[in-house]
Automatic annotation (TrEMBL):
This is DNA mismatch repair protein MutL. Residues 207-326 form the DNA mismatch repair protein S5 domain. One of its GO terms (biological process) is mismatch repair. It comes from Dictyobacter arantiisoli. This protein is involved in the repair of mismatches in DNA. It is required for dam-dependent methyl-directed DNA mismatch repair. May act as a 'molecular matchmaker', a protein that promotes the formation of a stable complex between two or more DNA-binding proteins in an ATP-dependent manner without itself being part of a final effector complex. The keyword DNA damage applies. One of its GO terms (molecular function) is ATP hydrolysis activity.
Length: 330
């Protein structure tokens, strides 16, 4: 692919964790119950995500790495009625341009779903199809990305030590496991289990599994609703669980993992006076708003978000958090 194309792909895919995020979201869109992630060499050597979702029909597999052919939005209004995390149809195409990518997938049928059946695999390298074949697997999809950024020297140069990249991947997978506690997540890094959840469906259980902390009695429910504009729910940890970093704060808006300066500011204003200096709470927060009141289509890599009723939401959040934090004993 042309240099410009590789640079564009490198902007969507900033680091190995960006690949993991795209593959995870695709697995979630495919309604997986179990998602297994494997990482080697900080993700530059290998990232593999396997799911037991609905799979990709053989007739479509060759197309999924062609930009926009799979885009789920036909016109702009569709964005408001989106029920999937992906919609641009460019993540796999971008990744295929700057790595060696193999997709092995079998679409679910009714009777033989659980059985191993021949499934198609296709490998792309630098955006070109280089190989294909058949291999048995139950329904679902396995996507393997190796040699990430091999043809994007600039990105390769930016990549930090494997430890740093692994850290980003662990934080990301933990957050998705918090967002989807009903799904079993496994993350293996260089043959070691880094994340393992049971998919119990219970958020407090997922947090305990993720952080290996004894959390019983230390977690408190957050709930605030305004039927018309928002529903806020989640869990916040006691003061004793406060941490030196924001990495234990997770925010989902309408099922999407979000970073929001506005929300983070509102949160900090609420907890800052109640926690020791420099500390941040263990906090998992889910905000649901009518889809037409948010704008998430801002940048493919950074999921920033704009709310129509931002002021209202910030006030509600601050109040909800304060109410819980003031009530719990130190
Ligand atoms: P988008 O998610 O924006 O549609 P992607 O490039 O991420 O674009 O994926 C392209 C298409 O490939 C998806 O729309 C979906 O049809 C298919 N696909 C990708 N990964 C999976 C998966 N794990 N299971 C089922 N289908 C998948
Ligand atoms: Mg996608």
């Amino acid at each position: 692919p042309a240099v410009a194309e590789r640079i564009a792909a490198g902007e969507v895919i900033e680091r190995p964790a960006s690949v993991v995020k795209e593959l995870l979201e695709n697995a979630l869109d495919a309604v997986a119950q179990e998602i297994r992630i494997e990482v080697r060499g900080g993700g530059l050597r290998l990232i593999r995500v396997s799911d037991d979702g609905h799979g990709i029909p053989e007739t479509e597999l060759a197309q999924v790495c062609i930009r926009h052919t799979t885009s789920k939005i036909q016109n702009f209004e569709d964005l408001e009625h989106l029920h999937t995390l992906g919609f641009r149809g460019e993540a796999l195409a971008s990744i295929a341009t700057i790595s060696e990518l193999t997709i092995l997938s079998r679409a679910s049928e009714t009777e033989m779903d659980e059985l191993m059946q021949p499934a198609l695999w296709i490998t792309w390298r630098g955006g070109e199809q280089i190989q294909r074949g058949h291999r048995a697997r139950p329904h679902g999809t396995t996507i393997t990305v190796s040699d990430l950024f091999y043809n994007v020297p600039v990105r390769l140069g930016y990549s930090k030590a494997a430890r740093t990249e692994n850290g980003h991947i662990i934080q990301l997978v933990r957050r998705y496991a918090i967002g989807y506690p009903g799904i079993r997540f496994t993350l293996r890094i260089d043959e070691h289990n880094a994340v393992q959840t049971s998919g119990s469906g219970d958020l407090a259980t997922a947090l305990t599994e993720l952080y290996h902390l004894s959390l019983s009695g230390l977690l408190h429910d957050i709930l605030a609703t305004d039927e018309q504009h928002y529903r806020i729910h989640g869990i916040i940890g006691n003061r004793v669980l406060a941490q030196n970093s924001r990495q234990y704060i997770t925010l989902f808006v309408n099922g999407r993992l979000i970073q929001s300066r506005a929300i983070q500011d509102a949160l900090e204003r609420a907890y800052r006076p109640l926690l020791p200096k420099g500390k941040h709470p263990l906090l998992s927060l889910f905000i649901d708003v009518p889809p037409e009141e948010i704008d998430v289509n801002i940048h493919p890599a950074k999921t920033e978000i704009h709310f129509l009723h931002e002021g209202l939401l910030k006030e509600a959040l601050t109040a909800a958090l304060k109410a819980v934090l003031e009530r719990v004993p130190a």
